[in-house]
Design goal:
Layout (H helix, E strand, L loop, with lengths): L6 E4 L4 E13 L2 E7 L15 E4 L11 E3 L2 E3 L9 E4 L3 E3 L4 E7 L5 H8 L5 E5 L3 E4 L6 E6 L4 H10 L5 E8 L13 E8 L10 H8 L7 E8 H14 L7 E7 L10
Parallel strand pairs: 12-13, 12-15, 13-14, 15-16
Antiparallel strand pairs: 1-11, 2-3, 2-10, 3-9, 4-7, 4-10, 5-6, 8-9
């Protein structure tokens, strides 16, 4: 068997309508929402950083789903499209048929604005995931690097990773109060980095902490998720200055400083 062999699993994209079951502010900048509903049954969440498309009510309070046309998403003529954003599920419990999504509350944007006012009984749409990236389990070390938008994926990866793994987490958050309890059966440590008022796009806390990490004996897999430019910068540093093979790095832009969605590997 090839060492460090990742797998990509493709899924049939299913569009669903789901209902809010409960809402809880778990830190000053994170709202946890539990979803359910009959259409959620059969939901696939095979990897910690799966992405789904959440579809929110438009200005008229309507859920307007797009159809996939030859030029991409197409909406009914005259309809006001529903805002859509990419999110990483924090967890899915098939027995309870409950999906947990953690929303970063940052005061603007359709997703954050909706999540801050969400109440049980409200409904949104969801599509995907379209695929799951299954990380090889035979690395000697795993380094997880991300800002607050990456915490759901980091928490899920810590939940799922095998007991013999050794994991280092670099987690950047707005404030000390935004620390979350994280657990794992693996041997892991978390280095929390508080911005204390610095903007998430201009901070360099993760970059400096990554440079300060020792080069351990053995092979290390690096998972990075942050603002797009910052994720690219960290990937470039690992590849060009540390000589890490590109297959040992998965760097994703979870958001862009200009307010648009982004996703890259």
């Amino acid at each position: 068997m090839t060492r460090h062999e990742h797998r990509m699993v493709r899924h049939t994209i299913v569009r669903r309508t789901i209902e809010v079951l409960s809402v809880k502010r778990i830190t000053p900048h994170m709202q946890r929402i539990v979803f359910g509903g009959d259409e959620l049954r059969g939901f696939v969440n095979a990897a910690p950083d799966d992405h789904v498309k959440l579809i929110f009510p438009n200005a008229h309070g309507e859920l307007v789903f797009p159809a996939l046309g030859p030029n991409g998403p197409e909406y009914p003529p005259g309809a006001l499209p529903s805002p859509m954003r990419d999110y990483t599920p924090r967890d899915y419990d098939a027995q309870r048929n409950e999906l947990i999504v953690d929303f970063v509350i940052h005061g603007d944007g359709p997703a954050s604005t909706w999540a801050e006012q969400a109440k049980p009984g409200q409904r949104i749409g969801i599509g995907g995931p379209r695929g799951s990236f299954i990380t090889a389990e035979d690395f000697d070390y795993y380094v997880l690097v991300g800002d607050e938008t990456a915490l759901p994926a980091i928490g899920r990866r810590l939940d799922d990773i095998h007991a013999t793994a050794r994991v280092k987490v670099l987690a950047e958050i707005p404030l000390l109060a935004d620390r979350q309890p994280l657990g794992s059966q693996a041997q892991f440590s978390v280095h929390w980095l508080e911005r204390d008022g610095v903007d998430g796009a201009s901070s360099d806390l993760l970059e400096r902490a990554l440079r300060e990490l020792p080069e351990w004996p053995g092979d290390t897999f690096y998972w990075i998720a942050a603002e797009s430019r910052r994720a690219r910068t960290m990937r470039k540093y690992l590849a060009e200055e540390r000589g890490v093979p590109k297959e040992w790095i998965r760097a994703t832009g979870y958001w862009q400083a200009d307010g648009t969605d982004d996703e890259e590997d």
